[in-house]
């Protein structure tokens, strides 16, 4: 049994390394555009996401804040119930959604556009509604997930 667990652990790590190794080839103009938008942001970087993407977003916001970039996380449901008021036109919104089609986005995106807030996306589906609405898209798609179970898991390359 312990040999089987070790093998499963090794296979999982190898698959995640393989998927993560594909990320550099996806970096291009959108990465540069996203970096410049964040570097020239005069306000805060507001990070949002639902489920596991939300947990990853909290980590990204905390890392940005601890390295000197004003940032915080807002849950999409809270954003729709008043917390969008915290976001100003000087801010940048980074939304993380593997599918890029979270229902909350249909309501959030027009409000961001009304306030002229720059939207950045981390998604596995660059042609999703989120990807199409964003000023820059970071493609986090994976060919294969490490989890063999039927539960949704975060894409391997998005794990901080």
TrEMBL record:
InterPro entries: GutQ/KpsF_isomerases (IPR050986), SIS_dom (IPR001347), SIS_dom_sf (IPR046348), SIS_Kpsf (IPR035474). GO terms for molecular function: arabinose-5-phosphate isomerase activity; carbohydrate derivative binding. GO terms for biological process: carbohydrate derivative metabolic process. The keyword Isomerase applies. CDD domains: SIS_Kpsf (cd05014). It comes from the Bacteria. Transmembrane segments: none annotated. Residues 34-160 form the SIS domain. Its EC number is 5.3.1.13. Keywords: Isomerase. This is D-arabinose 5-phosphate isomerase. It comes from Escherichia coli. The lineage of its organism: Bacteria, Pseudomonadati, Pseudomonadota, Gammaproteobacteria, Enterobacterales. The gene is srlQ_2.
